[in-house]
Design a protein that fits this description.
There is one protein chain. The chain is mostly helical. The protein has helices at residues 4-45, 47-50, 57-78, 80-99, 104-117, 123-136, 152-181; strands at 142-143, 146-147. Strands 1-2 form a two-stranded antiparallel ribbon. Strand 1 (142-143) and strand 2 form a beta hairpin.
Length: 191
């Protein structure tokens, strides 16, 4: 039980990471739905130009509009903003608990009571804390007397998730630009 303060601190920091990710995902979903809505508007406005290169433009535009509608409903269903607020509320309670003068037993009881109220963060958020804190920030992280260091699996998970996430973001934003630019580049367009 001597590591209760470390557990409280680590949990609050992991919940901060979870909140940041939820906000990032919320912002990304807003931006991407707006971006793809603009894409469908551009296709509609300049349909006479693009139909020369894309004979099925009407079907493509209708499909893109339906995808935007469904994506906006799905993104709303994930409730990123609500989850971010829940994680924020949790880590603020944990920070208040840290500042209270309580016995170790009372601190542990209150810590566990707080954890009962709120949903858990993902294991990946915990990995991100360890890697960010120990590697990127160059600080030591301990749980009691034990140093917390990233394992090869944590590094693999961290690296894969970040590469995959940013590759998807890049693809989702570059693909429509290539689609729109394709007829403008001499020799690329099929006429």
């Amino acid at each position: 039980m001597s590591n209760v303060d470390d557990r409280i601190w680590i949990t609050s920091r992991v919940r901060m990471i979870a909140e940041r990710k939820a906000i990032r995902n919320q912002n990304f979903s807003y931006i991407s739905v707006t971006y793809y809505s603009l894409f469908t508007v551009v296709l509609s406005v300049f349909s006479k130009f693009y139909v020369q290169t894309y004979p099925l433009l009407e079907e493509i535009n209708l499909s893109a509009s339906v995808v935007v509608l469904v994506a906006s409903l799905v993104a709303g269903g994930f409730r990123f903003e609500t989850r971010a607020n829940i994680y924020r509320e949790c880590y603020l309670k944990l920070q208040r608990l840290q500042s209270k003068a309580l016995s170790v037993e009372d601190r542990l009881t209150e810590y566990l009571d707080i954890l009962d109220i709120y949903p858990n963060h993902s294991e990946k958020d915990y990995y991100d804390l360890i890697i960010n804190h120990t590697y990127w920030e160059g600080k030591k992280l301990k749980m009691g007397d034990n140093a917390l260091v990233p394992t090869p699996f944590m590094w693999m998970s961290y690296t894969f998730r970040h590469i995959f996430y940013y590759a998807c973001v890049l693809f989702l934003f570059v693909a429509p630009l290539i689609f729109l630019a394709w007829p403008l580049v001499p020799g690329w367009a099929c006429k």
